[in-house]
């Protein structure tokens, strides 16, 4: 795991990272206190928010919403709607299928090994996340609050986004108290909680903090977990500060920001995963003794370049703008 500083998002400095009890007053009832977030609960209580968390902003248009894709073969035993290039729809992960997406720490050892083998997916211990984030954060501790929360950070190949928000220990799956959370979004929200005592100002600063925090991931299931973790992190800090639940409209606003800032991408090509692979024709005819016949599966096309939101200009821009 390394970190670097250089020209990045929208021409500003970019800080890239490679790689059970919530702290609150007694008597406050929290339903979001599990590492394994229930898509059924979100669907039942906030259906529009689950829809938002599944949106792919690059492939969606003003007239047609498209969702993130599975981008792995871990769920193909459930049928044709769970293949690598299929969109993740709410009905596929709720109801009697509401149990299938779980954090890496709660997956079987076999599945963990297979994902490491196929996609180099590994977990980073919380103490390592802390040390690396500490190194970067040390240079900005003297920043005023506005400067600090507006600094742009990006977690690359983010998985479940522990460098952004460490809601739970990546090894055990145990929920961490706020005092032990070390993600860069955690650090921003902790400073806001410590210095802001007016609720509307608090909300405005938190929204700015989220708009300046980015992450990308290949796997659709991990990306959904990351988005859920960031959303529930907002809930946790709100409850800790105000001893009440956030308004639905504020929850929806944060979910919307997250759906833009945590995005699905092939980090080597800056495209939507698998978007450069041509689908094999249903009918193909091979010529006998023809040495020049190509395998349709291996044919490539130009992939769909990823776009992300530039909140300063309030417009979508290509992620690799200025890199090509």
**C-alpha geometry:** globular
Structural class determined from secondary elements:
alpha/beta
**Biggest sheet: strands, sense, closure?**
5 strands, mixed
Estimate the mean pLDDT confidence: 83
- First and last CA, distance: 25 Å
Number of strands: 7
Question: What letter string, H or E per element, gives the SSE order?
Answer: EEHHHHHEHHEHHEEE
**Uncertain spans, ≥5 residues at pLDDT below 50?**
1-7, 11-31
How much strand?
5-15%
Strand ordering within the main sheet: 1-2-3-4-5
The Rg value, from CA coordinates, equals 20 Å
Q: Tell me the number of helical segments per DSSP (H or I, 4 or more residues long).
A: 9
Helix content: 25-40%
3D architecture notes:
It is built from nine helices and seven strands; from the N terminus they run ββαααααβααβααβββ. The chain is α/β, with parallel strands linked by helices and 324 residues long. It has a domain at 3-36 and 123-276 and 295-318. α1 (39-45) packs across α2, α2 (47-53) packs parallel to α9 (248-261) and α6 (184-195) packs parallel to α8.
Topology, element by element:
Elements: E1 3-7, E2 13-17, H1 39-45, H2 47-53, H3 109-119, H4 126-137, H5 145-150, E3 153-155, H6 184-195, H7 199-211, E4 213-217, H8 220-242, H9 248-261, E5 262-264, E6 307-310, E7 315-318
Parallel strand pairs: 2-3, 3-4, 4-5
Antiparallel strand pairs: 1-2, 6-7
Helix pairs in contact: 1-2, 2-9, 6-7, 6-8, 7-9, 8-9
Task: Provide keyphrases for this structure.
324 residues; alpha/beta; 9 helices
Short description:
By secondary structure, this protein is α/β, with parallel strands linked by helices.
């Amino acid at each position: 795991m390394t970190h670097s500083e250089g020209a990045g998002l929208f021409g500003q400095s970019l800080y890239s990272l490679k790689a059970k009890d919530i702290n609150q007053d007694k008597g406050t009832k929290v339903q979001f206190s599990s590492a394994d977030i229930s898509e059924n609960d979100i669907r039942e209580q906030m259906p529009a928010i689950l829809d938002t968390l599944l949106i792919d902003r690059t492939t969606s248009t003003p007239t047609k919403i498209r969702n993130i894709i599975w981008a792995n073969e871990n769920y193909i035993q459930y049928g044709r709607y769970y293949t690598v290039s299929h969109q993740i729809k709410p009905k596929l992960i709720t109801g009697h299928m509401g149990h299938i997406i779980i954090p890496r720490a709660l997956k079987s050892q076999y599945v963990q090994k297979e994902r490491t083998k196929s996609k180099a997916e590994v977990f980073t211990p919380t103490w390592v996340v802390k040390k690396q984030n500490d190194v970067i954060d040390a240079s900005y501790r003297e920043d005023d609050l506005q400067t600090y929360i507006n600094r742009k950070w990006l977690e690359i190949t983010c998985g479940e986004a522990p460098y952004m928000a460490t809601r739970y220990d990546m090894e055990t799956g145990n929920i961490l108290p706020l005092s032990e959370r070390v993600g860069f979004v955690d650090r921003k929200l902790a400073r806001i909680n410590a210095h802001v005592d007016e609720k509307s100002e608090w909300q405005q600063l938190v929204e700015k903090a989220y708009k300046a925090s980015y992450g990308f991931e290949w796997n659709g299931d991990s990306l959904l977990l990351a988005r859920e973790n960031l959303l529930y992190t907002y809930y946790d800090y709100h409850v800790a500060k105000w001893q009440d639940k956030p308004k639905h409209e504020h929850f929806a606003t944060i979910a919307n920001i997250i759906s833009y800032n945590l995005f699905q991408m092939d980090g080597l090509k800056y495209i939507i995963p698998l978007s450069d692979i041509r689908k094999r024709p249903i009918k193909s005819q091979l010529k006998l003794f023809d040495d020049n016949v190509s395998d349709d599966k291996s044919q490539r096309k130009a992939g769909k370049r990823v776009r992300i939101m530039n909140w300063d200009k309030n417009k979508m821009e290509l992620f690799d703008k200025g890199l090509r």
